[in-house]
Design brief:
It is a single chain. The protein contains 7 helices and 8 strands, in the order βαβββαααβαβββαα. With 221 residues, it is α/β, with parallel strands linked by helices.
Length: 221
């Protein structure tokens, strides 16, 4: 259950949503993109109700599992999603270059590595040049080199003006974010920059800061 949350993702920044599995990260992200049933209250994104038709071209969403067709090539996948979104024809080549997939455009998706499959999902989400990218644990299961490459790409996108909302349960990814939201049991328990979080708690890293915040909250009950 999520409890009265307000999340701000400034333009051109990478905002990380960190917390243990089961803390509500995926539920929150599904609410933002409008695919989660909301029992009470409402969700507003970019000034409009989440899931409204007007937001479909303004928000890109990447789920934990690669949401592309294994039996199609990379280019065929992107052409299909471009048609669904009504994005310009030139967008396919643009996102192929942007995600470093131009060399794999003719490959069938099931022949790609896990990191490349994640890039195909990201490329599909970039069609139409969305203002906000919502990325649900995009680096899960990837090796350190691939994680580094994806995070480098995220920051390139942020520098181009895209806002990114990225979830992770890997605390060492905290330092890669411009701002951090720490989540536990459906609540945002901290909202700060990585440096501010460490300064406020006196902790040496994000994981220790997270535990210190939990201890402080429990002690204050």
């Amino acid at each position: 259950m999520l409890r009265d949350l307000t999340v701000t993702v400034p333009r051109g920044q990478v905002v990380g949503l960190l917390g243990p599995s089961g803390s509500g990260k995926t539920t929150l992200m599904r609410c933002v993109v409008g695919v989660q049933r909301v029992a009470a209250g409402g969700v507003t994104v970019l000034g409009r109700p989440a899931g409204s038709r007007a937001l479909r071209s303004r928000i890109g969403y990447v789920t934990q599992a690669a949401s592309v067709y294994d039996d199609l090539t990379v280019r065929e996948n992107l052409r299909y999603f471009r048609g669904v979104l009504g994005a310009p024809a030139g967008d396919v080549d643009r996102v192929l270059e942007q995600t470093g997939l131009a060399g794999q455009a003719g490959q069938v998706v099931h022949s790609l590595s896990g990191g490349q499959r994640n890039r195909v999902s990201l490329a599909a989400a970039l069609l139409g040049e969305p203002e906000l990218l919502v990325l649900d644990e995009p680096t899960v299961g990837l090796d350190p080199v691939l994680r580094f490459e994806l995070w480098s790409l995220f920051h390139e996108l942020a520098e181009s003006g895209v806002s990114l909302f990225v979830s992770s349960h890997v605390m060492d990814e905290a330092t890669r974010c411009d701002r951090l939201l720490l989540m536990r049991d459906g609540e945002i328990i901290a909202d700060d920059t990585p440096q501010g979080l460490l300064h406020a708690t006196g902790a040496p890293d994000a994981e220790a800061a997270f535990l210190e915040i939990i201890r402080s909250k429990e002690a204050g009950r």
